[in-house]
Design brief:
By secondary structure, the chain is of the alpha+beta class. The chain is built from 18 helices and 20 strands. It has 5 domains: 140 residues, Rossmann fold, CATH 3.40.50.1390; 145 residues, Putative Large Serine Recombinase, Chain B, Domain 2 (Hect, E3 ligase catalytic domain fold), CATH 3.90.1750.20; 117 residues, no CATH class; 33 residues; 63 residues. Helix 7 packs across helix 12.
């Protein structure tokens, strides 16, 4: 919007925390002065300035920048001014997009004063300026990493102090005990060493009104945004207690570098292998001694007993594999002993009672030995298949999924797309040659190249999809993987856990259906019944539905 001979403009100012350490040249105050002087000299009415102080140029997720875009979309100004291109951002791709595409397409003039960049003029050096800004970003990231690495190797604590510590007022790179929280940490370790579980310790801390770590930081130590402060819980939980008990920082050791950013432009972090952690011993006063720390470690998880270690406990191989077909809950190993018989009275049963199911899972129970034998026989029938029978099985599976286009048709489409992409590249080269020779004007060149590049991008996307395996090929590959595994077996005389999980993904056991049509019989008598057992194999899923009529030898 023009007002007489004046232009209404926005000033955008940005400074990262790393750049702030470099002196006044890039400061917000200096940027403001340069932009204001430029606007006065060019009869520009500066409507408003937007500031992102302490924000990196590596991404555009900045509050000031987003608010400026919102105001621009409302037509509040038609000009944006920054001190230089790096103030807009240092990400080459996004900075170039906003400066050379977004602003011009929305009728907004953009000026970067120090770089002599103006969207109303030709900017021949722009690609190099954007590239150099990204080089600066990456070089700055590398320098920060080198400094942090040096500090870590010398034992300096360059992270947020853990619960129980604060930064030493005499040396901010060292930890000192926090008088308010250090006794709580010692209490946690003593309780754990005495045998209390993490859950019991957390409940007792809540009962005594002890403020949990994150809430303590929000209230008394660190500055949080309103959104971040809202995530702080008011109660302890056993996970927080376990995290404290496992942390060697309370022995006086510095342990850093357990995670890292995936890239210079991303905030996402990934775990670092343990052997790459930076560990420096005896860097600050410990809150617990080695003996207390070790006793606490020994008692961690002691309340969770491994009942499989006892000989008298039946050890099912179907844990996590056999589930109830009615509710999907895992079947539990259960049973009794009668006249010294254990195997005969061993069952897998659903004991889950879900509220969203009208009727409980009555009758979803199977004798353990019966299920073992059923799976063993079904597996043996697959292991005994000849190559011809396996081939027929694959063909039938491919037919069932309904292959919509043949491999020949996919190959033809792929060849056509590849040929057209090559042709487009040659056409674009010819167009630029004609433009250089004066046979084609710049406007027409831009339109034609843009259309061809759009077509090329669509063809490449289609080509990527064509290069991916078809549903039919995926099915054939899955069967090949399964029967390649099966070739290492001949015939199973027994069934163990390793063999089961190698071949079987899931087994669904349905309820017993007796001859009277019900799921239960009124008397404690042996009655014939039918029961479905569906076996879902690795890679290939369900092949057949096993099942049949059995004579129950146990009371129904």
């Amino acid at each position: 919007m023009k007002t007489g001979r004046f232009t209404l403009g926005f000033a955008y100012l940005r400074l990262s925390s790393e750049e702030a350490q470099g002196g006044e040249s890039s400061s917000i105050t200096n940027q403001r002065m340069i932009v204001q002087n430029y606007c006065k000299q060019n009869n520009i009415t500066l409507v408003r300035e937007f500031v992102d102080d302490g924000y990196s140029g590596g991404n555009f997720n900045r509050p000031g920048f987003k608010e400026m875009l919102k105001q621009l979309e409302q037509g509040k100004a038609n000009l944006v001014v920054t001190k230089d291109l790096s103030r807009l951002g240092r990400d080459m791709r996004e900075a170039s997009y906003y400066a050379e595409q977004f602003f011009p397409e929305h009728g907004i003039q953009y000026v970067a004063i120090a770089d002599n960049f103006d969207t109303e003029h030709d900017n021949i050096m722009a690609p190099f300026l954007f590239a150099m800004n990204e080089v600066y970003l990456r070089d700055g990231s590398r320098k920060v990493k080198d400094v942090l690495k040096s500090k870590r190797e010398s034992g300096q604590y360059c992270a947020c102090p853990p619960y129980g510590y604060r930064k030493n007022p005499e040396d901010k790179h060292r930890l000192a005990p926090d008088e308010a929280t250090a006794p709580v940490v010692e209490r946690i370790f003593r309780r754990a060493a005495a045998g209390d579980s993490s859950r019991k310790i957390a409940l007792d801390l809540n009962a005594d009104g002890i403020i949990p770590p994150l809430k303590y930081r929000v209230l008394y130590r660190d500055e949080f945004s309103q959104e971040g402060a809202a995530r702080a819980s008011d109660v302890w939980n056993y996970t927080t207690v376990k995290r404290i008990l496992k942390n060697p920082v309370y022995l006086g050791h510095t342990l850093l570098g357990r995670s890292k950013k995936v890239s210079v432009k991303s905030k996402k972090k990934v775990a670092v292998p343990r052997d790459s952690w930076a560990v420096t011993e005896d860097t600050h006063p410990p809150l617990v001694d080695e003996a207390l720390f070790q006793r606490a470690q020994e008692n961690l998880g002691r309340g969770s007993r491994d009942y499989r270690a006892y000989d008298r406990v039946r050890k099912s191989i179907f844990g996590g594999v056999a589930v109830c077909a009615k509710c999907g809950h895992a079947l539990c190993s259960c049973g009794t002993v009668y006249k010294g018989e254990r195997e005969k009275y061993w069952y897998l049963s659903c004991t889950h009672q879900r509220q969203d199911i009208a009727a409980p899972c009555e009758g979803v129970r199977i004798r353990y030995a019966d299920l073992v034998e059923l799976v063993r026989q079904d597996l043996n029938s697959l292991l005994a298949l000849s190559d011809e029978e396996v081939g027929a099985l694959v063909q039938e599976a491919v037919r069932r999924i309904g292959n919509e286009e043949s491999l020949k048709s996919r190959q033809l489409k792929k060849e056509r797309a590849e040929a057209r992409i090559v042709a487009i590249d040659k056409i674009v080269t010819k167009l630029y040659t004609d433009n250089a020779m004066g046979k084609l004007d710049d406007d027409r060149l831009s339109r034609m190249v843009a259309d061809l590049e759009k077509e090329s991008a669509g063809l490449k996307a289609a080509l990527e999809e064509l290069n991916s395996p078809s549903p039919a090929q995926q099915t054939a590959d899955s069967y090949a993987r399964f029967f390649e595994l099966a070739r290492s077996y001949t015939r199973l005389e027994g069934l163990d856990r390793d063999t089961l999980v190698a071949f079987v993904d899931r087994i669904e056991v349905g309820p017993k259906i007796y001859e009277n049509g019900g799921h239960k019989v009124p008397a404690r008598a042996n009655q014939p019944y039918r029961q479905s057992v569906r076996i879902f194999y690795k890679f290939i899923g369900e092949l057949t539905e096993s099942g049949g009529k059995y004579s129950a030898e146990q009371p129904a």
